[in-house]
Structure formats: C-alpha cells, structure tokens
Amino acid sequence: MYDAGLPFNCVNYKTFDKFIEAVGQYGPGMKPPSYHEVRVTHLKKEVKKIDQIIEEHKVEWNKFGCSIMMDKWTARNGKMIINVLVNSPRGSVFLESHDASNSSTDGSKMYSLFRKTIDKIGKENVVQIVTDNASENVSAGRMMEAMYPHIYWTPCAAHCINLMFGDIFKENPYASVFTKAVRVYSYISQRPLLLNLMRKFTNERNLVRPAKTRFATAFLTLHSFYLQKKKLRKLVLSNEWKDNRYAKEVAGKETAKVLISPSFWNDVVRALKVGGPLIKVLRMVDGERKPPMGYLYEAMDRAKETIAASFEGDVRKYEKVFEIIDIRWENQLHRPLHAAGHLLNPGLFYKNTRDETLASEVWIGYHACLEKLVPNSATIDQIGEEFGRYSQAEGLFGLQAAIRARDIRSPVEWWKQFGHQTPNLQKFAIKVLSLTCSASGCERNWSVFEHIHSKKRNRLELSRLNDLVYIKYNRTLRRRYEARDTIDPILLDNIDEANEWLTGAPQNHEDEQVYEGDDLDWGTVSMAVGVEENIYGLRGSSSSYKGKGVASSSRSLIDENSEDEEDDSQYNANIHEVVEFENLEEE
C-alpha cells in the first residue's frame, strides 16, 4: 500500500475485505497476478461483471424510461472527453466516454453522438437528454427533438442555477462586495504571518471554502466571511495586527478598513439573503439521492418568496435579482417535464388545488408532456380518465394512509403504493417523477477520470481508460444507490428557512455595538479610521460589473488545508475550482 501510494481509504471498501479474506483462505504460496493479467485479463472479467449490472438497469429503462446525461471533461493530455451516463429509477450508470477533441464545439457532431447513444439504448426507452447550456448542445438538442419527437432535450438545472449566480454577481453591490472579500483574503493568505494570525483569531477556520458548484463560490465565500465577522474585526483591531509590518502597508490598511466598514457587512448580508434560498435549490437539484423533478417548480417559487420576505417586501432591493432569475427560468428552466412533475407530486398537487394556486402554465406543460411522451391517443384518453380519480382523491387515493403519505413519502413511492387503480397514470407519473434534473453525475465523473488518469498514467489509451472508469464509477454508483433514501420526500421547508439564521443581523451595521453594553458602535469606529474613503476604488462604480481584478485574485482562493478526500466525496465535481465571474458566459 505504501510503496504503491494507495489511498488509506481503500481499506474501507468491502472489496478490500473480500480480498484479504481470499488471500487468507488460500494460505502461503499464493502467486500474484502478472502485469498483463491485471491490465488485460482481469480487467476484461471486471468489465463483464459491470455489464451484468447494466443489464439489470435495462429492465428499468424498458419499464419506466431513462435519462441520458452528457458532459465534457479535459484530460491531462489535452483530450476533450465526453462522459455519458444513464439515469433511471434504478439509479445512474456510466455508459461510455467519447474522444471529442475535434468536435466538442460542433453541434452536428454532438447531434450524431446523441443519435448514437439513443440508438444504443433504444429510442423507445429514452425520455430526455440532459446537458449543459453550451451552444453546440442547444443546437444538437433542437436537431434531436426534430428527429425524435417523443424525446426531450433538457438543460441541466444545476448549470442554469449556477448561471443565475453568475449573472447576479455581475451586478453591484454583489460584484463589488465579492471583489472586496476576494482581495481581503488574497492579501492575507499570500502572507504567511498574516494568515497564521488570522487562523489564530478564527480558531484555524479558513474563510474561503472551495465550492462543489463553481458559480456559487461567491455565496460560500461571503457566507464564511460573515460567520467570522466578529473575529475578523477583532483581528484588525488587535495589537498583533497593528504591530505586523504587513498591516502597515497601504493594502494592509485597506484590508482593515474593509473588515471594519459597516457598508461592506451590509452588502454581505444583502448578498447572503439573495443567495441563501438559491443555494438550497441548487443543492436539491444537484443531489443524487432523491429525484427532484416533482419539486423544481415549487422550489423556485419558494426561493423567490423567501428572498422577498428577507427584504420585507422592499422591491427595490431584489427587483434586479428577480429579473435575472425570471430570464433564466423562462429561457432555460421552464420545461413541460418540470410542470408535469409538479402536477404529479401529490404533496404539492392537493395543496395547490385546495388553495386554487395551480397556474395555467403548469396545466399547459403537463398536457404538452403527456402528448409528447405518450404517443398512443387511446392511452392518453385513459390517463385523462384516471387523472380525474387522482384529482378527486377517489379509491386508493382517498385512503387515510394515502392522504398522510402525501407529505411523508416520496412521490415515486406514493404512486407505487397507491396508484394501482390507475395503472396508465401510475406508469406515466413514475416515469416523470423518477427523472433527473441535472447532469451532475457526469461532472462528478470528471474526478474519477482525474483519479485514474494521473500524470504517471496519462498515456492510457481511451479504451482502457474507459474500462477503468466504467468499473470504478459504476461500482461507486451502485454503492450510492444502495445507500439512497427513496422513501422520504424532499423537504422544501429548508428553502423557506434558508435565511432564518440572518434574522438577528443588524439592519445597518453602523449601529452595531463594538462591545456589548457599550455605546461605541461600528459606525463611529469606521468614521474614525476613514473607512468612508474609496475602498479599492470600488465605490461609485457602475451598476454593471466588468469583473476586472477578480480573475487574478480568485485563483488563490483555495483552502490551503484542503486535501483530496479519500472517500466518495473526492469525486464531486469542481471542488478545487474557483469561478472567474467576468467569464460566466454560455458558450
């Protein structure tokens, strides 16, 4: 283990236990496999075992349909690789990879890949293809929908929400406050004496956490700043800071001014109030444990309601943010599948029906989805009749157990238990509600490639690399599936409560007391140290953020203590990547 540099967590795998047991049972004199056997013979045997797992998934594909997920990854040798995964009620499986070095930005070639994958799985089994919003994917999606009228191209919900964050943090005050935070931490982190001093005051806590989702880095950065607000202020007012030679530099003085400035912390709170609910939605659609298709509509509505409530209905403070959210929603996330999922989620449908809050766009989306996914008109008519029983809660739907289960069972599980008297609607509901909203599984696959395609092995031919990832990632996915929670529903209350932790935040940090029970406030302190001067040249800038200065400083925003996790979390995408907000454009 030590000679080969194997990660310590390999001993936690069940296969390691089996390996040790097998060696022990054999006894002395066991001959290890040769290099060729490990590289070829045994590798092929393991591939066949994974093929058997894929066959198990195909049963679900035939019964309820599946989603194809695709995303790009750049290998160490510069090759552009497209990962292909398939998601169904059985979970996700890694299907294959393609070398797209010469075609990654070509819509026609992406369309050819779409067709090849659909034909391999069976066009009758595919419900949707999920990718990011790159222009070649949009173009390929249009061509695919023209060729296969019953299949949707769906933009990745996680990517869309990430882009919302990108758009929001191009606008002031969010752009300027994030830039200040970046520069403060960059100045401190690049000077070991100041960095160690900061860690002393923050109890070894670093300010900027690497983000699992790139564009949300700004929120996570400001969140970590706010959690350490009191300690950071104590830091720059301490004698240890004042006696440090770096603190006497111009940039050091400006750093102290930022951390003392009430307006900086006012803007931090404002950004957190906007970002908190969106982060909750992002984590919901980015998860693999529970299908979020039946919740996205409601989640976005609740996120906006929570943002508005956080500003006590002062539209001026969130009007621009809502414009950004609405544009992304209308252009990318407002999909018939999401509408159908909302209508077929019993926990939301019956409440909306009772409160008469079901919008016409939801009904329009539901019927559009029905017409597209169910080509047989007789079956559509039967589903229409069965929907009447569902809407009136007749038969099994009206049982007290079914009524209680609306809010305590996942929508898929609810339909499996209580939908037997409406078999056509039941099958349609499970098909829609089991769908994924994001291509996050592909992004997490990048790290599997990175783990296997190391510098020492970067000459692996694509077929062997594909086999190694095929084995490794599908085993990981199987473990995740076995640990999943399919019974409990997704709880949306955490979106409503996303900003409750900010309830005690001052309306204006100028009035906040420096010491409890003392009349001295931070407004007085800020005036005394000249904080109202132009900090980093950011005050008075235009409302549209151009992003200058963020790129160079943001590269250092990696937690120095962060090491590669030696468990499944190491395969989460982009955990060491920090966004450059001026480059947040759709390709």
From TrEMBL:
Record domain HAT C-terminal dimerisation: where: 409-474
Regions of compositional bias (Polar residues) in chain numbering: 543-556
Coiled-coil stretches noted in the UniProt entry, renumbered to this chain: none
Matching InterPro entries: DUF659, HATC_C_dom, RNaseH-like_sf
Positions of the DUF659 domain: 33-181
Disordered: region residues: 543-573
Compositional bias of kind Acidic residues: 560-569
GO function term, MF aspect, one: protein dimerization activity
Annotated PANTHER family: OS05G0256350 PROTEIN, OSJNBA0013A04.12 PROTEIN
Protein name, UniProt field: Uncharacterized protein
Organism: Nicotiana tabacum (Common tobacco)
